[in-house]
Batch of 3 targets.
Target 1
Amino acid sequence: MTLQSPNFDSLGISAQWGFLSDEAPLTSFPNSFYAPWDDLIRDLPSLITSRSLTTQVKALPRLTASELSSDVELRRAYVVLGFIIHAHVWGSSGPASAPASTPVAQIPPQLSEPFLEVCDKLGMEPVLSYAGLCLWNWSSDEGGFPIADGDGFFPLEQLRSVASFMRTRGEDAFYHVPVLVEAEGGPLVKILLDAVGESRRSNSASVQAALSNSAAIIAKMVKHLPKLYATLDAGEFFHELRPYLAGGKGMEAKGLSDGFVFQRSDGSQLASKHIGGSAAQSSLFQFLDLVLGVEHEAPEKKSETLFQEMRAYMPRKHREFLEAASQLPTLRSFVKARLSDTGLCEAFDECTKQLRLWRSTHIAIVSKYVVRPAREAARGSENGTAQKPEGADFEAAEGDEQLKGTGGSALIPFLKQSRDETTGVTRS
Ligand code: HEM
């Protein structure tokens, strides 16, 4: 794949909205063949609460994915089946008030077979990842997509989830603040690819203008992050929502010794251990790092960084796009060769400064929504007054530095390292 004059559509990317793509997610399947999936996903939150999901899943007809006739339909099938599967695993048993204490590893053929087929076509791992939770999981009160030359994307209040576990405003906000960040940052793909083209032509003035423009866009991306605080309660996120997001990797202690086990109608089965959804699976931030030349080091004893690991969880088209972007000369190398050009250096440094600020602001969010609730839960369980959070995928007892993120990385050290590696050319 070459990124000179790229055809954004064929890359699954929108010139305006970036990795959100140009087609808004479908809110139902155009083909009534899939009405049973539409019905189940619509009722998912109440089926979880009444603990009647198992009965409904048993009654689900075995539908092939071969009637899905476009990418946007495949994306809806991925979202719908992914949510039903995670609800089936984590929300089928136990008291109705909380995520299940005993997960169900076996996923029946009527869910497994079409899901595996859809994942294969989209080039995704068989687990609900960032694309399914966020990129392809929004609709607007207005319907469809905003007009590209309007005042930006829909406000948070106008976005609804296509699929959800609890149907609360907090859950919606968790999926849609990333959507706002992606939409705000969408134009960066074209702006920065064009800047690389200009750098090849040694056009410093155009590169400088693109970097200044990009810095202003990243600054706007930062402003979306605090919107979470007013809408999403930390306890709701940590104890109620987060458990549903977990995949089958590292869940042995929870009883998933083989991870998620996908059953097929011929009696065979596929055991799969994959991590759950995380915004670290966003292609936008990896693109920014690649094109700006922000380098991340792999942790000790590991051959790849968490970022590289996360690429497996992106849609195939986005992963291939990043692989092609990683072959481009970086803007850092262009700027570094012109350190006497103060304007150019300052524009580059402003860009990395804003990205670094984004990462600092994000650390504060992770601290509120993961670190503090984990600390409180650990303290409670030491005192015998609270249970460890169900489905939480890390240990909290040893202190915050020991907390593990979705990918099993040391959470806080990873995020701090990622921020500290976001440096400019003349200052850090
Ligand atoms: C309650 C809200 C949030 C929580 C609890 C959260 C949690 C995390 C965690 C634990 C990580 C470390 C990687 C992992 O283990 O998964 C991470 C990384 C990351 N998150 Fe978030 N996050 C939140 C909101 C967001 C939002 C709104 C975005 C916007 C797209 C975002 C984008 C990222 C990115 C890009 C990374 C990779 C690290 C980096 O680039 O520095 N997160 N997040």
Target 2
Amino acid sequence: MRRYGKNPDEDDIRVRPNSKGTRPRTTIRPKHEDAAEGMVLTVDRGRLTVLVGEREITAMKARELGRKSAVVGDRVAVVGDLSGQKDTLARIVRVEERGSVLRRTADDDDPYERVVVANADQLAIVTALADPEPRPRMIDRCLVAAYDAGLDPLLVLTKSDLAPAEPLLETYGALDLDYVVTNRDDFLTGGVDQIRERLAGRVTAFVGHSGVGKTTLVNALVERQRTTGVVNAVTGRGRHTTTSALALPLPGDGPEGAAGWVIDTPGVRSFGLHHIDPSRVIQAFPDLEPGTAECPRGCSHDEKDCALDSWVAAGHAEPARLDSLRRLLATRERREGD
Ligand SMILES: Nc1nc2c(ncn2[C@@H]2O[C@H](COP(=O)(O)OP(=O)(O)OP(=O)(O)O)[C@@H](O)[C@H]2O)c(=O)[nH]1
Ligand SMILES: [Zn+2]
């Protein structure tokens, strides 16, 4: 699977300046052939902050885009005033095809599932080992969302000074999940390198419930940021005013001049799992998947004849994993955030 960020040279989402003549053009596009390519960093009430080269500009959707949305992480083509000066406004005339989408669940205020992050290739699931207690169900839901969106999950276990990681990791042992264990004291001694390594050259969306230490972690990661440009300008605006995700560059060189991207997602209470087929849910449980071979056709995996019970009874997987799968299947239709 091609994922944005891993092989920027092979990326077919980008519009290369010299691609004229080598590629067929659609009839709509020539109008904006001189458009600049950018990446959406955040969205605030119809105003989008777009990184174009080294410059951060404010833009809005051009009318011709219609209902099509542009979200954080989107590659967009912009025209108009690209100076980035105060009170200037550019127009987004095109949203490039997305390599991946993360959706959030519909809620009472907004009945539609919406894409909140585009083009991420990794999902960092931030969970505290204590205070607050880890929530395996929430982790499972995130895993399902990650697998469904084609993102590599990365379990980030924080506050290791308060509790050991082993019990939780044991539960997920069969999943062969990539994980990092962190704590605040490590950050002070440069201990974020372990996680930095996992983020290098990639676009990683960070999710986690309030209080797990996500902000502490993200700040440690983006701290040594160049003094001008993206981070300071964006964070200076006051996060609380926006429910949008926010793309933050990791210091160093790489695609778009950053060593990788952290996409902080304050507004994502829960992922939209409504659209996910039960047969895809099972993909988040590779330890259980082989056990479904003997299931009756169209098995819900939560019925009397389900073969998973005997699979687990035979010792092929942990009973806790099957419980987790079943809880997930049962709660998939609900709108809960945990
Ligand atoms: N013991 C301990 N406390 C931590 C650690 N990291 C963060 N904290 C504390 O946990 C609390 C929550 O941290 P935040 O970084 O604000 O957590 P958050 O997930 O961003 O939560 P919100 O800001 O509510 O969204 C703060 O009081 C932090 O000081 C850690 O490694 N160990
Ligand atoms: Zn079954």
Target 3
Amino acid sequence: MSISGFKRGYHTIKVMLQYGLDKSLPSKLKPWYFRALRSCLFWLRNKHPQRSGGERFRLAMLELGPVYIKLGQMLSTRRDLLNDEWAEELAELQDRVPPFDSALARAAIEAELGVPIDSLFDDFEDTPLASASIAQVHCAVLKSTGQPVVLKVLRPNVEQKINQDLQLMEQVASRLEKIMGNSHRFRPAEIIADYKSTILGELDLKLEAINATKLRNNFTDSDALYVPYVHMEHCYKRLMVMERINGIPVSNIEQLQAQGTNFKLLAERGVELFFTQVFRDNFFHADMHPGNIFISKEHPDNPFYIGLDCGIMGTLSETDKRYLAENFLAFFNRDYQRIAQLYIESGWVSENTDVVAFEQAVKAMCDPIFQKPLDEISFGHVLLELFRTARKFEMVVQPQLILLQKTLLYIEGLGRQLYPQLDLWQTAKPFLEQWMSEQIGPKAFFDKAKANMPFWSEKLPELPELVYDNLKLGRKLLGSQQQLLQKYVRHQQQLHKSNYLLITSAVLLICGTLFYNQSVTPLLPHSFYGLGVILWIVGWRQRPKKH
Ligand SMILES: Nc1ncnc2c1ncn2[C@@H]1O[C@H](COP(=O)(O)OP(=O)(O)OP(=O)(O)O)[C@@H](O)[C@H]1O
């Protein structure tokens, strides 16, 4: 470990202990060696004993920087793991991170634009509209069109800070793996690698701008999702300019209630949006924490979502999509054998897996879940448990599926917060069944045929020539096959004839010997010998030659 890595490691431990994070750990997660190590660092005392556990955790994440803030954001959506106090504290990490100096923001924006801000924008506001883990957002008006826009600029040195923390995490994770050995299912190095690829995607605002434009285009005519227009001509790696939206943060339930939002429709549209992005477009927003989702103020009875921050997007292969949809349907039909088969067919687990044992494990996991009423079942959780079960059968980690499963958990959490009676399955099932029938029904056949049209229209003019060539080839093949057959028949006939002559010659020779011993008259045995020898010579000559 380098000196700077060591320093950062010490700083991280110091901040965590000074905010008393060790106190919040349940005692079963504090083995004797942990407690011994803690006692060795006696000078690092909890400096904020008067604050609550959630607040201490949030402040520690804020002090440690972007990587930890993101971690806190992710945790904030896991209301299944956290109590309300913690979840609300951590939700503040979604967009209430202390801002950085506006002079630095201006300098960074102008460095990217290559011209002064005032030459392209009017009314640039030095006080940021919002400040988040990776970037800060300032309002302005686009000079050329007079449209209100926001300028999203990366925090100074955010890349270095993230890389340094990730390096440290990678080193700790690989040491942990060495200590625990290969047999353990907990693979910290894999988790960090997964997290790394996710967070690094957020550091390129040009890429985010491209993603946002693609998502916007996918939902141009949608009444469920709106994505703000991105001014691509002013987007760079560290700066993004887009239309300013004016929605209500999805977490602000009171304001949504006050305007009379149709929560049932909103929650159902959330689920529909998730499945449309995954199955129709194969391009889904994978950072759906509430700080990135707003609700329209117009027509509260017919509300739509406004999606921001397209830094992390997910895609699945066609095969994964198909198996995932089937998996959900099989789960709902309690067809555990099918689930086990699907994991094998898709290649998620090896084909040598014991299907029966796997099916039993899936059943043991799913049966207790079905004891609950349907509207209490979390499908993100079911998927997570299925992956855990499959890990016991050496499932290869599929980062794209993990991303999807996390997104599903977010969506479900959000949907249930908006409308607690949301029956996710009733909303999703018709969508999945329809999608599956489109994949395998006659419509799928015609769609595929239609998709292959350009290929066939290119090949069609060559078709008569190809048919003629093939017929000619076929006739030639038929001719040579007939020749071969005739040759084989002739060969067999010759063989039979030769065998017949040789056997008769052997019989004559044996008879000749018998008569010779009887010595009735020498003429008879000699005639047998003579005839036998002649037949043997003829028979031998008749034998077909080996080729
Ligand atoms: N187009 C916009 N119009 C209005 N407000 C916006 C817009 N884009 C971003 N914001 C505000 O800025 C906040 C932070 O933006 P964004 O989530 O894109 O930043 P980030 O640093 O990538 O955040 P995160 O911590 O989620 O990674 C949003 O929560 C929202 O309040």
